[in-house]
Structure to design on (352 residues):
């Protein structure tokens, strides 16, 4: 990163975390708009191994089968610099006609495959697979904390990262906390996931048929982390969250709340979507380990006999097994959660 791109993006005074994050990540000179892109600061599953794109390409083929079509959309939300799209297009069965979309707030990267439509909005009315890897954790959210008297208040922050408690949390934010992440003891803290729920419901709801998948660092009720998960990454290292545009700001996703939000929105839509629409129905939440196993990614080592019969193939297979292990490892990428949302009454669960 050059000195120029490393410039801090300050703001005066105090902001709630949602507004501060919005400015720091997506405002002028914001972290995600910088030329080096997310891959300059952290490794997602997409960067860890091409096996990930291969698995997503197989999932796309399954969705095509379920929709009984050879032509469908692949919509990558929070597409970074198009790495997953590029990998999926390289891996997908050539018999499939794919309409690829990269949905991103950053500009189109140079040299991207011309077939890819680059847009800052999820296309409306497509049939196919919508996939969002590590998108929702970067949708800005407010932070709440219980004060010494037991009141739940918004946390405010300055652009140097100093925090203080602001006004009381009320209205829909208070309802969200009560339903999904109740705070009880002084010092308890949570990220209010409402903007993630809304973002997910809108993205998945834009499909007319197919499957929508969100993959992220996540937690489920009732096992929420007592002090929240807001943190930051810069140049591959975890660092203190400071909303000055020099680091990623991220917080784990309340995945069950997102699933229910889609269900609730779908319920208010006319049929046929309403047929799947009771909250949670048509959705499945599973670990990345399980999801990738179902899609054929396992860390099985090659047989030792291969080492003598074909040493080159053995070494290649060993490397592949190592990459699969990284993608599915407990305590690492394997613990990510996949929210798999079915968006039609006629298809079954699509991972498995
Ligand atoms: C952590 S990166 C993940 C990139 C890529 N999916 C990967 O797995 O490597 C999150 C990306 O989401 C993008 N993003 C965040 N909010 C968005 C929105 N509302 N619409 C489109 N892209 C968004 C950011 O600009 C950033 O590139």
């Amino acid at each position: 990163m050059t000195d120029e791109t490393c410039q801090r993006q300050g703001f005066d005074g105090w902001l709630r975390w949602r507004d501060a994050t919005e400015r720091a990540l997506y405002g002028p000179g914001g972290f995600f708009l910088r030329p080096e892109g997310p891959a300059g600061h952290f490794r997602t599953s997409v960067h860890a191994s091409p096996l990930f794109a291969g698995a997503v390409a197989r999932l796309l083929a399954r969705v095509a089968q379920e929709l009984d079509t050879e032509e469908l959309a692949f919509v990558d939300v929070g597409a970074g610099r198009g790495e997953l799209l590029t990998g999926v297009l390289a891996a997908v069965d050539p018999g499939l006609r794919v309409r690829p979309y990269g949905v991103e707030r950053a500009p189109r990267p140079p040299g991207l495959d011309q077939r890819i439509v680059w847009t800052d909005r999820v296309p409306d009315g497509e049939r196919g697979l919508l996939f969002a890897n590590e998108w929702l954790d970067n949708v800005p959210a407010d932070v709440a904390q219980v004060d010494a008297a037991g009141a739940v208040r918004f946390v405010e922050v300055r652009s140097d990262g100093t925090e203080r408690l602001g006004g009381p949390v009320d209205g829909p934010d208070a309802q969200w906390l009560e339903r999904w992440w109740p705070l009880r003891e002084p010092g308890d803290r949570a990220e209010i996931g409402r903007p993630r729920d809304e973002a997910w419901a809108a993205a998945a709801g834009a499909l007319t048929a197919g499957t929508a998948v969100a993959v992220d660092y996540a937690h489920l009720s009732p096992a929420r982390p007592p002090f929240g998960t807001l943190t930051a990454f810069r140049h591959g290292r975890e660092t203190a969250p400071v909303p000055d545009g020099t680091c990623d700001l991220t917080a784990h996703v309340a995945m069950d709340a997102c699933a229910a939000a889609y269900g609730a929105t779908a319920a208010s839509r006319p049929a046929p979507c309403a047929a799947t629409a009771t909250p949670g129905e048509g959705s499945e939440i599973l670990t990345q380990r399980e999801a990738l196993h179902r899609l054929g990614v396992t860390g099985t080592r090659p047989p030792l006999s291969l080492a003598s019969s074909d040493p080159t193939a053995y070494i290649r297979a060993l490397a592949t097994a190592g990459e699969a292990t990284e993608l599915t490892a407990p305590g690492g990428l394997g613990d990510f959660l996949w929210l798999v949302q079915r968006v039609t009454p006629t298809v079954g669960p699509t991972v498995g």
Notes: The CA atoms of residues 303 and 309 lie 10 Å apart. Residues 32, 38, 44, 46, 78-80, 83-84, 103-106, 120, 133-135, 138-139 surround S-adenosylmethionine (CB under 6 Å). The two ends are 42 Å apart (CA to CA). Confidence is low (pLDDT under 50) at residues 1-6, 270-280, 346-350.
